[in-house]
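User: Hey, quick favor. My workstation is busy. Could you predict this chain's structure for me?
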Amino acid sequence: MPYPQSAPTGLGQIAQQAAQVLYQHRLVSTRQLHRLITPHHTRTEYLRRQLHTLRQAGFAEAVGRRSTGQTELLWWLTEKGAQAVEAVGLLQPRAYRMSPEAALGPLQEHTLAVVEAGAAFVEHAGRLGHECGPLDWSPEIAHHYRDESRPGEELCLIPDAVLSYVHTAARQRTLLTFFVEVDRTQMTIARLAQKLHAYAAYHEYAPQPQKAKGNRGPRRQAAMPAWRYRYPAFPRLLLVLTGASEDRLARRIADLRSLAASDPALTNTRQRAGVTTLGLLQQHGPFEPVFTPILGPSELADAWLRPQRDA
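Assistant: No problem, here it is.
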């Protein structure tokens, strides 16, 4: 997927692309940037030079992290770099700003894991002739809703990422949208089940129109649920588990399915939700049978993500 030319100006194309990716995803390793931006290069030297050019210009900063016995640099945009990207207006503005403290903080590994999940889609899209690029997922987009089980509360669902993917087959192009949640075994299974419940509640939420002043008549029902104002079809929910052995992740999947089966909000909705591990997603890709449905038979679903008519 071609990149638009954008700020920071006066820099090479690769440096500009890196600035966009860092703005969108906040914290990205050199290795991840290489896979997302320069996968056609066998070595990372050119990308590294471009990143250091960004750093020398005051647009980016980096910290080191020990990974597989080596020190790996993690990159983010400075305020100057973020303002330069925003000045062009090609990306959705993001209020969040990374800092050295945040880059070294407890959310570091989770942020990088979300990038890994997105990168798996990008890499397999390239192999399959589909379309999904480094800017085709956005982290932490707020979705406001209400839940009948918590009357009077204004609630907010924030997926780890909303990912767009163009699937092509036999000259047919289908836009797929996914809610992506990444769990590094930091949450309890009960908390994960609560997240599933939140997605089911958002699926059913239909905002009520405001009464006009002086109108004593009954409110009319909303014409459609809130999600239809944003998506042509309700995004499929993908839970990606990592941060533990495959055996432990398999037990978490079984426990999560057990809790989900006991939640009427989930069993009554037609939402499609599946769970896999990051290792399976990276190794086989999203269109192989790697996802276990949250509800129903526990067998891996064959081609679970392939386009079909959504509810």
